[in-house]
Amino acid sequence: MKNLLGKFNIVDIIIVLGVVAALLVGFATTKHFRQTADKQIEATSPITFQVFLRGVSVTGEEFPIKANDKTFITIRNVPYTELSVLKVTSQARQTAIATSKVKEQYILIKDPAQSAIYDAIVTITDTAKITKDGAVVGGNKIKIGLPVTLEGTNYRLNGTISDVRVTSQSEVEDAGIDNLVG
Fold it and tell me: What pTM was computed for the model?
């Protein structure tokens, strides 16, 4: 036995132990004792998520992002892909002014000091892999608070995700039809 151990040095023993460990992990994976990443995906489903854009400066006559357009999205400074915009809601910054009416103590008017500053909510759709932790798009978990960048031919706007919903294909189509009518 001592003669057999004398023929191997410590490096040889470490290599043999590494190979044995790799074989054990491979065996456990094939016998379903260990879950791999693709087994954690429960489904693939359409999702809609809203991106909140705060303080967008627009001096033109209309907001640059429109419903039924495509916008290129960057998630955590990593370019992802071009996605469909379902709905856009933009509103100029407002300020509250006190009123003498009994029922209404104040009214909201467009803030003259910030006439070109808008807040917007852009609703976007994509197909996501649904896991136990939530929706995964482009290798990123899509969750509220995630910073994203929307980019088109004449804009590049930074925002954060403010809502994520797993939807069916018919709900996405209905949202698109509502945008065309309204």
Answer: 0.67
